[in-house]
Design a protein that fits this description.
Layout: H1 2-21, H2 25-49
């Protein structure tokens, strides 16, 4: 009888641990992948929209030195 109770307890603990392991991992991983896709799309969009800051161009060439 004690062996039967011990076997029942082991089976119950094993079944509960397997049920918990399959519960939220897939949803969490799916949310993580979705967040990564959204952030990468935003990053690519930011890279496309990024423009270089205008740099002041000198009209006089460096060899002229007219205003020195």
């Amino acid at each position: 009888m004690k062996a039967m109770k011990a076997l029942f307890v082991i089976a119950a603990l094993t079944a509960s641990s397997l049920a918990m392991a399959a519960g939220g991992g897939d949803r969490t991983f799916a949310r993580m992948e979705q967040a990564q896709k959204v952030s990468m799309a935003a990053y690519r969009l930011a890279q496309k929209q990024e423009t270089e800051a205008p740099v002041a161009e000198s009209k006089a060439k460096s060899a002229d030195h007219a205003n020195c």
